[in-house]
Amino acid sequence: MRLSLAVGLLAPGTSHGHLVAGRRSLLELVASAELVVRARILAANPAAGLADPTLRRPVVTASVLETLKGAAPEGALHLAQHGHGTAVFREGEEVLLFLVPLAASPELRRLGSSGALDWVSLQEHDEKYALEPGTRREVLSAARGYAQLATLGDPQARASALRGLTLRLLASQDPGLAASALRDLAGAPPEPPILEAGDLPALQALLDEPTRPVGLRAGLLVELERRGLVQGAERWVALVRSTPRPERGLALRAAGAHPSPAVTAELSKHLKEPDPALAAAAAVALGRPGHEAATPALAALLERPEPQLRNAAIRGLGGIASPRAREALDRAAAAHPDPATRRRARAESARLRGGRAPHPRGSE
Prior knowledge:
alpha+beta; 46% helix; disordered C terminus
């Protein structure tokens, strides 16, 4: 699974004002930018540029309040925004800006021919860091810390500073900052280690905290396993059991990606949930090779009266794709009393016989 599923679990909801999960991390933006500043937005023109409509881009004017990296010129900054789904800035707000010289973008050099523009923003996909009262101090501290990493010539000092930043942001109450640190952790090789065995007590507290987003907890567990710092099956069971019911389906999905007898047994218990949505989530989560022991329970789910549960059982059996799972699908395709269930089971059996890739998780 690595981090892809975990970040996907973090994606629904809001960006908490400055970060949309699944985008570049704060560290990546700081490292990629030649100029990082804390700035006040003076004006934002959604469609400025040359007469050529292909060179019209959002243009922002900002005053520099603090330079975190690079050398800011005197006076206001005039920058073009480029990319897909650029961040939306509002006049008067205080933000972090991550910039490269306009000359570094061959496509946009002509925008600077009038001398009015000098910079291009790296912030795409609403990668916006608005410095709001509740998060301002923590976001600024993290950005300053990342900017200072490049000034540390000693590799050990740099690794130690990065480790401290990572641990601090993983524990942040701001889900966006925590997700940003987790993304960096997932992109880093196990050696040299960013996390060490001595960090486990603090990290274990994060894993066990039910108020933390389940995607963050699952992603952190993946990374601790990858580094050999924890052993997994019991941890995944604990993740499911400690997750509040409104998010339990997401925890089942995360645990299902790590088959083991203990995980299979825990997910199978949830097939008997009185809440059909939770039972269906468990059935879909079991739909992976390695959960073969859940085949009889999934086959029994085909007899439930709720169509949602029967459909989920078909998906689960199709994902397991073992001989016993295929037999259960074939029986349902041939003799299930519900015509719609027979059609779905028949389609899943045909998919398995044809050797096509399984349908994406989360789709019908």
